[in-house]
Design a protein that fits this description.
By secondary structure, this protein is α+β, with helices and mostly antiparallel strands. The protein has helices spanning 28-53, 58-83, 97-107, 130-135, 157-169, and strands spanning 2-7, 17-23, 86-92, 113-118, 122-127, 142-147, 150-156, 178-181. 45% of the residues lie in helices and 27% in strands. A hairpin with a 3-residue loop joins strand 4 (113-118) and strand 5 (122-127).
């Protein structure tokens, strides 16, 4: 999906700022990991809590609700990577990308991200807590890099949608005066 926008107060006449979002193919390994984690968590909690609280054995509980205990984790493991897969968001034609790069990195504090590394023109961000990093299999990282007059952001779809919405409709980006062109 490509979204083109016009930057009306750009210093060079006729130039355009384009926002392009590309989503990558879903990861099969991520689906397997999510499904296994959900199977272990759901069935483990039923195995430990039901005998203590309801005085039911795991086998009796499993015989009554095996569909829920098997299919909910499997469907969650498939749907989660499909709906929140990796992608990239590219902003082309930005006159001064350095301040915008820092502003985008600061906005990700809303999701609990901190800066984990900085190279020449690239900022790497990841979750603050190790628990969140573990729960996302260390694949929740975001990188914001500058190449010439463009900014490329790579991360999960949820993060890219948030940043795209903030860029198009946020108060902090009114200076760019972005308008959609289809």
């Amino acid at each position: 999906m490509t979204l083109r926008t016009e930057l009306s107060n750009n210093k060079t006449p006729g130039s355009m700022v384009t926002i392009e979002k590309k989503l990558f193919a879903p990861s099969i390994m991520e689906m397997v990991f999510y499904a296994l984690m959900m199977l272990i968590l759901l069935n483990g909690s039923v195995l430990l809590l039901f005998p203590l609280i309801l005085k039911l054995s795991f086998i009796a509980t499993f015989q009554k609700s095996w569909i829920i205990l098997l299919f909910v984790p499997l469907l969650t493991g498939i749907m989660q990577p499909l709906t929140n897969r990796n992608g990239s968001l590219t902003l082309k034609g930005i006159p001064d990308p350095l301040p915008l790069q820092q502003k985008l990195a600061d906005m990700l504090d809303h999701f609990g991200y901190v800066e984990t590394g900085r190279e020449d023109q690239c900022i790497a961000l990841d979750y603050k807590t190790n628990w969140k990093r573990f729960m996302h299999y260390y694949k929740g990282g975001v990188s914001i890099s500058i190449e010439k007059d463009e900014i490329k952001i790579t991360g999960k779809k949820q993060i890219l949608d948030y940043l795209e919405t903030k860029i198009l409709f946020g108060k902090n980006f009114k200076v760019l005066d972005i308008k959609k062109i289809y």
